[in-house]
Specification:
Blueprint: H1 22-29, H2 32-39, H3 64-77, H4 81-90, H5 92-97, H6 110-127, H7 131-146, E1 153-162, H8 170-184, H9 187-201, H10 205-210, H11 217-238, H12 245-255, E2 256-260, E3 263-266, E4 286-290, E5 293-306, E6 316-323, H13 328-341, E7 348-351, H14 358-366, E8 370-373, E9 392-395, E10 401-405, E11 411-416, E12 422-426, H15 429-433, E13 445-447, E14 451-457, H16 458-468, H17 475-478, H18 480-488, H19 502-535, H20 540-566
Parallel strand pairs: 1-7, 7-8
Antiparallel strand pairs: 1-5, 2-3, 4-5, 5-6, 9-10, 10-11, 11-12, 12-14, 13-14
Helix pairs in contact: 2-19, 3-19, 7-19, 8-9, 8-11, 11-12, 13-14
Length: 575
């Protein structure tokens, strides 16, 4: 049965303060734990998780805000579940952060953490709603509002993270799939294929493949493919609801070409799509090459944060986690959509060149946002030739070219090409052939019949115009978000998550983003405490904070006075 946690608001006789010296209590009250309790724990809306529990009268649930906070701390510090549980039991800072003020009370068992996590994961799978994302949004929205931070100017960047998977060769992948399919089959089907599959079931995939000579790799790939093809046809006829069937069909479609029934041909490496399966243990992790580096079995993380110079502190406002083949422009559109739904006003976004292009431009136009890219992808030309943005393009009201002037001042005539969005530009032969750059830096082709000519697409002209509108002066603003991304991935060495699957990856990364914001707020609030103590001034946000602290102090002091009367020794007369 769901029940909200109110106990942390009540001071206990066995509270942390009762067992610490005034100096230690002051240090603990000024640590990150107190900021976490105030800015994260106390802001968690436990009602978001009510659907995870039964509506029948039963034993009350373990406090949701404690369990959610544990997930956030796990991601923020990179603790294992065992370390997390030990910290919750014995670390005074963690207990303060979790609102566990009573030292005379045992906490729940470690199994409770696993059960809660499983419920959140299953709820996301059934509904498409990741509750840890909702927690991040709810907490962040409240922090932005309380500090009155400006969200109009934001910066954005993306990064790659890896799922907790072993890097596998193509043969190892097929062996792993075969083993996974075998586990999903019924007992009778397992016995039917066991003899034929026996060489591939003895040991882990890399142990099986280690014994296979390289020259025999193709033969084994075809053998496994034929076995899966045969099983797929049998299951489709006898057990169409089989759990193994979707996995078999996916791997056959991605790795082989079916020429006829029972006849398979291996696809070449270049023919395999980036969305192809990288491991049977994580069906959503994909493949991507970025910056010359391969990412096999991972996800892309897109981070947006405030960038207004007048903000006293910058916070992460939004995050997307998707399979790593997702384009940056799609991530930006998703971010702007999400922030619009949360009533976060965005006027301009500073990015790198990955977000430019038709999709990115359309996403910004949709939300009336200025895209301030520091670079631009596409439209690059040979360094030995004039770039297209060195030409002066004259366009009509619908941005179609009607004239062009080359860098040397020669005017060209624009003629529509036979295909849509294509144009032909012709220059005067005498003027061009006298130019010292003709057939050098000039981009014209000297045609025998038509003379100096340029053939180009509409998009080339658009990119040339966009390139002139870039904002390289925003580079110092943009690069800061790279530090933010490193902070989000700080607890995951080698950018490798300790979990698998898109749902669990999102749970960990959104929790990590909460901790990044928390650390920034703690630094800001502590600096503000010192400055205000020195200057004797208070801002509105600090006034609210000190008011709450003062009320809590008064309440605790009253309890101490009353406790002295309750604990007075009672004298009983003997006669």
């Amino acid at each position: 049965m769901f029940q909200e946690n109110k106990d942390h608001k009540q001071e206990s006789f066995y509270s942390l303060k009762s067992f610490l010296t005034p100096k230690l209590w002051e240090q603990l009250s000024n640590s990150w734990a107190a900021t976490f309790y105030q800015e994260v724990f106390s802001r968690i809306d436990e009602k978001l998780f009510a659907d995870l529990y039964s509506e029948k009268d039963s034993r009350p649930n373990v406090p949701v805000n404690v369990l959610v906070s544990l997930e956030i701390l796990k991601s923020g510090y990179g603790w294992s579940d065992e370390e997390l549980y030990e910290q919750a039991k014995y670390n005074l800072q963690v207990r303060l952060a979790l609102g566990l003020h009573n030292l005379n009370e045992d906490i729940f068992t470690e199994r409770t953490i696993y059960n809660f996590r499983r419920r959140v994961r299953e709820y996301a799978k059934d509904t498409g709603i990741n509750l840890m994302q909702k927690v991040f949004e709810q907490i962040t929205d409240a922090q932005l509002e309380d500090l009155a931070l400006s969200t109009g100017w934001q910066r954005m960047d993306s990064t790659q993270v890896l799922s907790n998977l072993a890097r596998m060769t193509r043969l190892e992948l097929m062996v792993a799939v075969l083993q996974a399919v075998h586990k999903q089959l019924g007992e009778s089907d397992q016995k039917r294929v066991e003899k034929r599959w026996e060489p591939y079931l003895e040991g882990r995939p890399h142990q099986v493949c280690f014994k296979i000579p390289t020259r025999e790799t193709k033969d084994h790939l075809l053998t496994i493919g034929h076995e899966l093809d045969r099983l797929e046809r049998q299951l489709a006829e006898r057990a169409p609801e089989s759990e193994a069937l979707p996995l078999i069909r996916r791997i056959l479609e991605e790795q082989y070409k079916r020429e006829a029934e029972g006849v398979l041909q291996l696809l070449k490496g270049k023919e395999i799509d980036t969305e192809s399966l990288q491991s049977p243990h994580d069906l959503e992790a994909t493949y991507r090459v970025k910056g010359g580096k391969e990412y096999r079995g991972g996800y892309v993380v897109n981070v947006s944060e405030t960038a207004d110079d007048e903000n006293p502190v910058q916070l992460i406002t939004d995050m997307q986690v998707e399979p790593n083949h997702t384009d940056d422009a799609d991530l930006m559109e998703q971010s702007l959509d999400d922030q619009t739904e949360r009533n976060i006003k965005v006027d301009k976004v500073t990015t790198d060149g990955g977000y430019t292009g038709p999709k990115g431009e359309q996403a910004c136009e949709k939300h009336n946002v200025e895209l301030r890219a520091t670079r631009m992808r596409g439209g690059y030309s040979s360094p030995h030739k004039w770039s297209w943005d060195q030409y002066i393009w004259e366009v009509d009201e619908v941005q179609k070219p009607i004239g062009v002037i080359c860098p040397e001042g020669c005017r060209g005539q624009v003629i529509p090409g036979q295909a849509e969005e294509r144009f032909i530009i012709r220059f005067e032969a005498e003027q061009c052939r006298d130019c010292p750059f003709f057939k050098g830096k000039c981009r014209v082709l000297d045609r025998a019949r038509s003379g100096p000519t340029i053939y180009l697409k509409q998009r080339v002209i658009e990119v040339a115009g966009k390139r002139k509108q870039l904002h390289p002066e925003d580079t110092p603003v943009r690069v800061v978000v790279e530090s933010t991304i490193r902070s989000v991935k700080k607890a995951f060495p080698g950018s490798k998550l300790p979990v698998r699957g898109l749902i669990r990856s999102r749970m960990m990364l959104y929790s990590s983003a909460v901790m990044v914001n928390l650390r920034r707020l703690h630094k800001y609030l502590n600096e503000g405490d010192r400055k205000n103590a020195k200057n004797g001034t208070f801002s509105l946000s600090f006034f609210k904070m000190y008011l709450l602290r003062g009320l809590k102090y008064i309440f605790c002091h009253i309890l101490e006075i009353l406790s002295t009367f309750w604990l007075q020794p009672v004298t009983i007369p003997l006669s």
